[in-house]
Specification:
This protein is mainly α. It is built from 2 helices and no strands. Helix 1 runs antiparallel to helix 2.
Length: 107
């Protein structure tokens, strides 16, 4: 059935709910990939910080270590915000899917 060209309201609403679900799903996948990237960067920075702390014992790279720690804190805050966004997006996808199921029950 071609619901895109239909003049019936419930067909248009069904199409809208399906499109909304796809957009929300794509958004949650984007946020998830950003979270995974930040986790990899944070892990890499931790190992770099451990190496730099060894150099700081010899009075080398103190400023770089301080800068890296500040960057690490910013990345951690960003990851926390992305995790919150991901959870909200995931909840939105579930809600949109539930709405689409309700629309299908009426038809």
């Amino acid at each position: 059935m071609n619901v895109a060209g239909s003049s019936k309201l419930h067909h248009g609403m069904r199409l809208w709910f399906v499109q909304q679900g796809d957009e929300a799903d794509a958004f949650s996948k984007l946020i998830f990939s950003c979270c995974m990237h930040l986790r990899r960067v944070i892990a890499k920075n931790y190992s770099m910080m451990a190496n730099m702390e060894g150099l700081c014992d010899r009075e080398v790279a103190m400023e770089s270590l301080v800068s890296l720690k500040k960057t690490q804190e910013r990345h951690q805050l960003m990851l926390n915000k992305f995790n919150d966004l991901f959870n909200e997006a995931k909840d939105g996808v579930r809600e949109e899917v539930a709405n689409a199921v309700k629309m299908n029950k009426f038809n």
